[in-house]
């Protein structure tokens, strides 16, 4: 069975969800759900606990191959990939799906006095 791992990296938190090939959520974990609060939600120890939760879920669902998609600008992407590969999870695709604005919003009107 093949599944996708979607990782949202923000400056304050990391949210990881495991979905099947149709997009149905099989499970999720975040820095807050592992018991951390504040800036500690993005530390390496929080990422370790998140990945361990995901690995347990992957083994329970008997998933053989995963594709990992990152969204956001936070840190922890390399750590997450290394931990997955170290625990013998076959990573098929690593992708970045962060939205980049082409032109942005229209600026405010200039003030006239």
From TrEMBL:
Question: What InterPro entries has UniProt attached to this entry?
Answer: Ribosomal_uS11 (IPR001971), Ribosomal_uS11_sf (IPR036967)
What's one GO-annotated cellular component?
ribosome
Entry keywords, A to Z: Mitochondrion, Ribonucleoprotein, Ribosomal protein
What is the superkingdom listed in this entry's lineage? Eukaryota
Say yes or no: keyword Ribosomal protein present.
yes
Q: Name one GO biological process term.
A: translation
**Mind telling me which Pfam families this protein's record contains?**
Ribosomal_S11
Claim: Transcription regulation is one of the keywords in the record? no
Q: Which GO terms describe its molecular function?
A: structural constituent of ribosome
What family does the database annotate?
Belongs to the universal ribosomal protein uS11 family.
HAMAP family, per database record: Ribosomal_uS11
Protein name, entry field: 30S ribosomal protein S11
What lineage does the source organism belong to? Eukaryota, Rhodophyta, Bangiophyceae, Cyanidiales, Cyanidiaceae
